[in-house]
TrEMBL record:
Family of this protein: Belongs to the peptidase C48 family.
One function term, GO molecular function aspect: cysteine-type peptidase activity
SUPFAM superfamilies reported for this sequence: Cysteine proteinases (SSF54001)
Organism: Trachymyrmex cornetzi
Protein name as it appears in the record: Ubiquitin-like protease family profile domain-containing protein
Amino acid sequence: MSVKTKGITFGPVEKNIIVRDEWLTDTHMDHFQRLLASCSNYKLVETWRIQLVVDTIQAVSKDTKHIQILHSASNSLDGHWVCNFYDRKNIFIYDSLNKKILHNQHKQFLEKLFPTYDFEKNPVKFPTVQRQPNNSDCGVFAIAFATSLLFNIKPNKEKYEHKLMRSQLIKILYLTNFERDRQKVVSSRKWLYNKRYYEKNPVAIKNIFNKSDIKNNVEKQLEAEKIVRRCMQIRDKYVRDMYN
């Protein structure tokens, strides 16, 4: 089975790369970016353009939020994917290696994308995120970070279920209509949250969900789980403090 998004074919070869825990390629990243763009107002730049023809990149308005997968490499064997986010005020890079260093290739791209941004007065920020446990999952985490940001969730506040990330990624990339199916795929709690919070508190989550005035059911569900998770964290801390 193969699926296409505006000229990009995602077939068995690409799927096997994910299954075999290998490093994700431009095809995977561009396919995901086009799926993300199809269900949002984000206009992501193709990864080949970032790497090869930076001068053709069109600037993003300073009043427009932006999500972008970025690539860097010093040779053909050490490529690395990160997720970039602009919230109209600050530029963030979510890096699963937590290097916290602005790569020259990233800097060159960001200066083209945000020509009016003052990088000296307001340097790029590098929030500490969940670290990849191997040498091949940078792309998987970059996509996970972008997925969280799509739903206004800060990646540095999340704990991802690593063992489920690649199987969930296959489901997302094989969708032919991302907007129609994102509720049953992207909102999977196993993808975004530690499952112990929602499995042990279904009633609390349901009550918050029913009282929420958020219109989008996916965002409403995620917000309900987020509130319950935070309450659990506060309770656990209180219990620990009592016995310390």
